[in-house]
Design a protein that fits this description.
Layout lengths: L1 H10 L10 H7 L1 E7 L2 E11 L2 E9 L8 H15 L4 E7 L3 H9 L3 E6 L2 E7 L1
Parallel strand pairs: 3-4
Antiparallel strand pairs: 1-2, 2-3, 4-6, 5-6
């Protein structure tokens, strides 16, 4: 995660720590891992509470950027959420990463609100 977020941390000083507490998240949440060439190419951390799913974090190693890993992870997150009974999924991204907002919109997500540096988004499943 740190490698994936390093370029963003350089330009966004208020970006939250993406790997702090990761051990706990791995224990408490659902973690999906994408592997390529015998290594970890990316991961997604999610939770499901009844009909609501939450994409807590998603990261792709820069060495694998542009290879469809992020899209595959998002599809896996949505499939898992549907399988476990969720009817919608939410996420938060940073206002300073407009390319994320644009990508999520392109993939069917809707912006629901903004709160400080957070852009909250939702997708019906």
């Amino acid at each position: 995660m740190d490698r994936a977020y390093a370029p963003l941390k350089a330009r966004l000083p208020d970006l939250p720590d993406v790997s702090g507490g990761l051990e706990r998240e791995i224990e408490d949440r659902i973690v999906l891992v994408a592997e390529m060439n015998d290594g970890v190419a990316g991961c997604a951390v999610m939770s499901i509470d009844g009909s609501r799913a939450h994409l807590v974090n998603i990261a792709v190693d820069p060495d694998f950027k542009g290879k469809g890993i992020g899209r595959a992870l998002l599809e896996a997150v949505e499939s898992r959420a549907l399988r476990d009974g969720a009817t919608g999924i939410a996420l938060a991204t940073h206002v300073g990463i407009p390319e994320n907002v644009k990508l999520y919109r392109h993939l069917g997500w809707s912006e629901t609100s903004r709160n400080g540096n957070k852009v909250l988004m939702n997708k019906k499943l």
